[in-house]
Structure formats: structure tokens, C-alpha cells
Specification:
Blueprint: H1 21-34, H2 38-51, H3 55-63
Helix pairs in contact: 1-2
């Protein structure tokens, strides 16, 4: 299984997300544990998820590019 790697800073755009409380709490706990911002932690989790997406979904996404 792949391991989560949390890179340094980035530049990007602003988006607003509504997240379930339990996900926010777990992500914040991880951020606190790693001494990172909540935002950096969420970005790392999303990057990991997108890099490890189901093959069928990955194929579908690549067709839309």
C-alpha cells in the first residue's frame, strides 16, 4: 500500500468545501500531529486519493481531458 507523503507549500485557487464534522476532526488531528496546516493536509489527502483512484474512474477522467 502507498504511504502518504506531505509536500511543502503550493500556489493555487480558493474553493469552499462543506465537509462532514468527523472528516474535519480527523484531518485536523492529522495536521496537528504532523505540525501542518489543515489546508496542506487536505491537499495531500486529495492528491493521494486522485493518484490512487480506481482504474475505471481514472480511464473515464482521462477521456474528459
Amino acid at each position: 500500500m502507498n504511504k502518504l507523503k506531505i509536500p511543502k507549500n503550493h500556489s493555487g485557487i480558493s474553493k469552499t468545501l462543506r465537509l462532514p464534522e468527523n472528516i474535519v476532526e480527523e484531518a485536523q488531528n492529522l495536521a496537528d500531529l504532523k505540525n501542518l496546516s489543515f489546508n496542506r493536509t487536505i491537499i495531500s489527502l486529495l492528491e493521494f486519493a486522485l493518484e490512487n483512484i480506481d482504474d475505471a474512474d481514472k480511464t473515464a477522467l482521462n477521456k474528459n481531458k
